[in-house]
Specification:
heterodimer; A: 117 residues; mainly beta; globular; B: 111 residues; 6-stranded mixed sheet
């Protein structure tokens, strides 16, 4: 079955450590996204990528980095520069080949919960 | 600044009740409004609305968009405990490739 796989599901980190969250999709989607979800704040966009080897900052990119070396993969690194990294992180993808409404309908992974100790 | 506001933030109902969830928006270059259901982890897509006044329906769920007053509602009739979830509203823009999400409505259906 096609879908998005995120790992790990749960991750604990000490302050000052960088961690990398994995996101893999087999939907053949062009675009991939990383969102952060905090209670009462909805989903906020961290980074997105529409094509291999290219990505753009979202609304809250500071303290995060990404790469898009393969179409299927879009890992997110939470660096020590991120001041409040404890959150639920969702990876998503969209087909983008559709013109008009719906080009950005997202398919989500199951998420990774990061806790900083 | 683009804004998507959902209300209420949370509500508790009993099985069989009907609920109405609201989503209002103030954005430039509106293209469509999307509703998602998030039960435990991954949000799942419910509806995409592009035109005013045309109801989208799926079983006990329905949704409608008012582009003049800039809001959408999601109705759930004869609620069941399986409807308990966070319901997310998002706006798609005509230009650019991202969605802006509201904070979500937490729905709990008691048996």
């Amino acid at each position: 079955d096609g879908g998005i796989t995120q790992s790990p599901k749960y991750l604990f980190r000490k302050e000052g450590q960088n961690v990398t969250l994995s996101c893999e999709q087999n939907l053949n989607h062009d675009a991939m996204y990383w969102y952060r979800q905090d209670p009462g704040q909805g989903l906020r966009l961290i980074y997105y990528s529409q094509i291999v080897n290219d990505f753009q900052k979202g609304d809250i990119a500071e303290g995060y980095s990404v790469s898009r070396e393969k179409k299927e993969s879009f890992p997110l690194t939470v660096t020590s520069a991120q001041k409040n990294p404890t959150a639920f992180y969702l990876c998503a993808s969209s087909i983008l080949k559709v013109r008009g409404p719906g080009a950005n309908v997202l398919t989500f992974g199951a998420g990774s919960r990061l806790t900083v100790l | 600044e683009d804004k998507v506001v959902q209300s209420p933030l949370s509500l508790v109902v009993h099985e069989g009740d009907t609920v109405t969830l609201n989503c209002s928006y103030e954005v430039t270059n509106f293209r469509s409004l999307l509703w998602y259901k998030q039960e435990k982890k991954a949000p799942t897509f419910l509806f995409m609305l592009t035109s005013s006044g045309i109801e989208k329906k799926s079983g006990r769920l329905s949704s409608i968009l008012d582009k003049k007053e800039l809001f959408s509602i999601l109705n759930i009739t004869a609620t069941q405990t399986g409807d308990s979830a966070v319901y997310l509203c998002a706006v798609e823009f005509r230009y650019g490739n991202k969605l802006v999400f509201g904070a979500g409505t937490i729905l709990r259906v008691k048996s």
